[in-house]
Amino acid sequence: MSSPRAVVFDLDNTLALAFEHLSARTAKGLSQLLELIPVAVMSGATIERMEEYVLPTLPSDAKLANLYLFPNTGASCYVWKKGEWQRAYHHAFTREEFDAAVAAVSEGIEKTGIVEGAPQWGERIVARENQITFAGIGVDAPADKKRAWDPDRAKRAKLKAFLDEKLAGFDFDIRVSSRTAIDITKTGINKALGVRWLAKHLGVEPKDMLFVGDDLKPHGNDAVVIPTGIQIRETSGPEETAAIIEELIGASDPT
């Protein structure tokens, strides 16, 4: 694997567990890597979650001009300009698309019965203007409960099949993601879009960049980036990711 000219990281179960701050080790490593090459965080998480769990962990002198944030599975991109985060692009649902997706998820939860008797921590449907997310046992569920709820994705497969049929008339991508989620975005609005945008913005080829994620296996929620030609590296979780960052620093540092 050649030394990348930019690195893209998934967030949940890659840089940190969902709804947890980056570790001190990871935050320090990211800051050091930002001094050397552009870095992106690309996730189904909202920009608000990145602002709460990622950005505050970075040192005050971190080189934010080299950091790119792609929330909502790449449906938006934020760049640091003039001392603030500014949106570089944004793809939103129409009102018809938004209403149809929310209604279908609500109906699907009831008809499939996949959450019957399941505990719930927080909202099960997170509706944003560019992504609708089903969170099986709630967005605030503890990490261990998320891991245990649908490890083989069989529960979510039932709901996805319902959504695929119910929303067949719309141009949607419907993806099983993370530990308990299903994400709905407009067709083609995904992490691959983010990778291609970043490559063009930086003036490099996707093959010259690296994507680090926890779910790069076939049909995994990170696997959509593979056809872009980007280099890939799967991680077992935040601890291994911290080690990967340190390895990248060593490989990229000209000294």
Question: What are the SSEs and their pairings?
Answer:
Blueprint: E1 6-9, H1 24-34, E2 39-42, H2 47-53, E3 67-70, E4 76-81, E5 84-90, H3 95-112, E6 125-127, E7 132-135, H4 143-149, H5 154-166, E8 172-177, E9 181-186, H6 191-202, E10 209-213, E11 231-234, H7 238-252
Parallel strand pairs: 1-2, 1-10, 2-3, 10-11
Antiparallel strand pairs: 3-4, 4-5, 6-7, 7-9, 8-9
Strand fraction: 15-25%
CATH homologous superfamily caption of the largest domain = HAD superfamily/HAD-like
Strand order of the largest sheet: 5-4-3-2-1-10-11
Instruction: Please tell me what the overall shape is.
Output: globular
Radius of gyration: 18 Å
Domain count: the total is 2
Count, helices: 7
Number of strands: 11
Supply the CATH class of the largest domain.
Alpha Beta
H-E order: EHEHEEEHEEHHEEHEEH
Assembly annotation: single chain
CATH architecture of the largest domain: 3-Layer(aba) Sandwich
Q: Major beta sheet, specifics?
A: 7 strands, mixed
Distance from N terminus to C terminus (CA atoms, Å) equals 20 Å
**Unreliable residue runs:** none
CATH topology of the largest domain: Rossmann fold
Tell me what the structure shows.
- The structure is a single chain.
- The protein has helices at residues 24-34, 47-53, 95-112, 143-149, 154-166, 191-202, 238-252; strands at residues 6-9, 39-42, 67-70, 76-81, 84-90, 125-127, 132-135, 172-177, 181-186, 209-213, 231-234.
- The protein is built from 7 helices and 11 strands.
- The protein has 2 domains: 6-91 and 189-252, Rossmann fold (3-Layer(aba) Sandwich), CATH 3.40.50; 95-186, Hypothetical Protein, Haloacid Dehalogenase-like Hydrolase, Chain: A, domain 2.
- 43% of the residues are buried.
- The strands form 2 sheets. A 7-stranded mixed beta sheet has the order 5-4-3-2-1-10-11, sandwiched between helices. It has a 4-stranded antiparallel beta sheet with strand order 6-7-9-8, covered by helices on one side.
- With 255 residues, the protein is α/β, with parallel strands linked by helices.
- Helix content is 33%, strand content 21%.
